[in-house]
Specification:
The protein has 14 helices and 10 strands. It is α/β, with parallel strands linked by helices. The chain has an 8-stranded mixed beta barrel with strand order 1-2-4-5-6-7-8-9, surrounded by 4 helices. Helix 4 runs parallel beside helix 6, helix 6 packs parallel to helix 8 and helix 12 runs parallel beside helix 14. It is globular, with a radius of gyration of 21 Å. The structure holds ligand C2E and magnesium ion (3 copies). The site of ligand C2E has 22 residues, from strand 2, helix 3 and strand 6. This is EAL domain-containing protein.
Amino acid sequence: RAKQRGRDTFHLFDPNHDRLLQVRHEQRQRFIDALTNNELCLYYQPQVDMRSGKVVGLEALIRWQHPEEGLLAPVQFLPIIDTTPLEVDLGEWVIERALRQLSEWQVQGIALPINVNISPTHLLVSDFSQRLGELLARYPDVPPAMLKLEVLESAAMHDIQAALQNMARCQSLGVSFAIDDFGTGFSSLTHLRQLPVSLIKIDQSFVRDMLTDQDDMAIVESVIYMANRFKRPMLAEGVETLDHAKALMALGCDLAQGYGIARPMPAEALPTWLEIWPGREEWGSLALADN
Ligand code: C2E
Ligand code: MG
Ligand code: MG
Ligand code: MG
């Protein structure tokens, strides 16, 4: 009670604090407008099997086409809505968009699964699977297996029972899961055993320096070893060079995503990229050399 009073007092007499709250409020209002005015869009980054060269899926990444500030990356606006209910609104918007895109591409003969990032707040809401079911029902032509949800290890960590329950329900709808940024959370091993995930994504921070930093190399090696022991497919994020690609394949990780393969692109650019990709000489010879 005394603590509560103290906080109120602080609040009352600190004009800076009020100002900050005001700014946050305005930023959130602006974000709500962006959601309703169609200023948000999804970029797509290909995920490939380096051994065969086959494109195995796409990750949907949110962008804000801001009328004054230009194209904004998630790091520039996701903090505004962090741990607020707006994360749920955004998450549902992203899932709906991804399903709509799957439906459109299906008509054009492009059949690639889409991975969607789900925030910890969103994953843990009680009617998560029910809402997902409703969204899937709007696109009856899209097989639910074409949608994969990327969740952070730390999200599950926060409330493991709720996470496991929601994930199991989504799985029964036919949707699968990936662990994102694997290796950055705590007690990775425990989670790997418990969580119903069909893909492990090793965090790009370890991949980036693996060729020069022995500790990062050790982490990458261990994660690949573990994933193989648990018989879970694994994908390396942040594959920027052929040398990274070769090292990862030698360690037993064939799936990759990164600027070396393709940067995230607007949906309209994908069909052209899909035509160009098989002709990317150096990546083709990489697969051949290793076989
Ligand atoms: P993430 O899910 O781990 O996504 C991978 C990020 O790494 C993306 O950044 C991608 O553009 C970037 N990336 C891919 N390949 C490379 C590479 O070779 N080198 C480097 N340096 N970076 C690479 P982006 O699009 O800025 O997204 C950042 C984070 O924002 C994502 O990390 C994800 O946590 C979050 N995010 C993105 N879209 C959504 C969304 O729709 N919903 C939610 N809740 N979070 C999202
Ligand atoms: Mg992701
Ligand atoms: Mg990641
Ligand atoms: Mg990340």
